[in-house]
Amino acid sequence: MKAPSLQTIGLTKRFGDFVALDAVDLDVRPGTVHALLGENGAGKSTLVKCLVGFQRADAGSVVLDGRERDIGSPQAARALGVGMVYQHFTLVPSMTVAENFALARGGLGAIVDWPAKIAEMRTFMDGTPFTLPLEVPVSNLAAGQKQKAEILKQLYADNRLLILDEPTSVLAPDEADEVLGAIRALAHAGRLTVVMITHKFREVSAFADDVTVLRRGRRVAAGPVAEFDAVRLADAMIGAARRRELPERGPVVQAAPPVLALEGLTVTDDAGRRVVRDATLSVRAGEILGIAGVSGNGQRELVETLLGQREPSAGAIRISGERYRGRRGEIARHGVGSLP
Ligand SMILES: Nc1ncnc2c1ncn2[C@@H]1O[C@H](COP(=O)(O)OP(=O)(O)OP(=O)(O)O)[C@@H](O)[C@H]1O
Ligand SMILES: [Mg+2]
Q: Do residues 69 and 196 share a domain?
């Protein structure tokens, strides 16, 4: 089995009167990584759901390796070697990597000869750019290893068209590069064809061969990545006129007093782990403060604490100099808002 080509022709999907996909043509060359870009709600997930049989298009067709295919169910997609890797992990955490692989491939008899199975998996893995411990429970793996296991699981199940929906959002940048580098190597070796949904321009230019941009359900741009720089991608995604309307960055008023201040704030998660440790920071009037980090590093618990949904175990929060505990009255008085 080798990397297939994929086309959609005039793919259309409506939800009531709303047209989520409007006659979308997609052309994915075999053995390439094809990026699918678009704003929230542009129709990316709807398009790939039609490819993996979770949704049925109202019109148009899907052509796999030159043959029109009716992918009416996830089973039909699986039988055609089409697999999907999600943003969040779908491995069974308490099972080992080998057990997960065997489960994905199916066809196990009543009695499994594990030593033979694992030897076979080792040989299979030697032929890929990945190395993973096979006999370790998935829950013990780091995030990057889990995402590699998701991809390897698809390969082991003989899937040759992989659809990746934001595969790097839970990975640190170096892990993301390693995973995407391995995916590209597999594609360029002719073993995989990849459609990758991403919002990160850097990943598009560094790892994808071609790109298709959707806007409000329509294809607005497509072609080799080399023909697109970040400005052209942004214009295609949101429209050149809208991009020019975006306000210029205003000056930061250094002298403004801090509106929000955290003083040695420590927060524990539900399992009692200290996920925010001794955090001290301040945000002045007119500022936007970014907090960076891979998900699962205390961001959620920090926001919950700022909204009074979680008690800090140490430290203090001040708003405009006043002690703040996220009580309803305080939230109303200070005009604290949250946009999840
Ligand atoms: N089952 C559904 N019923 C009604 N409307 C839907 C349904 N699924 C999606 N939509 C709508 O179709 C549009 C496209 O949604 P879709 O999920 O494909 O966007 P997306 O490009 O994947 O966005 P995101 O980047 O947020 O994942 C959206 O306006 C969405 O609200
Ligand atoms: Mg989506």
A: yes
C-beta neighbour count of 303 within 10 angstroms: 14
Q: pTM score, two decimals?
A: 0.81
What's the CATH number where 310 sits?
Answer: 3.40.50.300
Tell me: the pLDDT tens digits for 22-81? 999 999 999 999 999 999 999 999 999 999 999 999 999 999 999 999 999 999 999 999
Which amino acid residue places its CA nearest to atom 25 of ligand 1?
A: 40
Ligand 1 centre distance from Cα of residue 46 (Å): 6
Pocket test for ligand 1, best of 11, 13, 21, 44 (most atoms within 8 A of CB): 44
Query: By residue range, what is the domain housing residue 209?
Result: 6-245
Q: Which atom of ligand 1 is nearest to the CA of 16?
A: 4
Counting other chains too, the contacts that 114-122 makes at CB distance below 8 Å and 24 or more residues apart are 121/156
Q: Is residue 252 part of a domain?
A: no
Q: For the chain, what is the radius of gyration of the CA atoms?
A: 24
Q: Are 265 and 278 in contact (CB under 8 A)?
A: yes
State whether the beta carbon of 144 lies less than 6 angstroms from ligand 1. Answer: no
* pLDDT tens readout for residues 240-294: 888 778 777 777 667 788 999 999 999 999 889 999 999 999 999 888 899 987 7
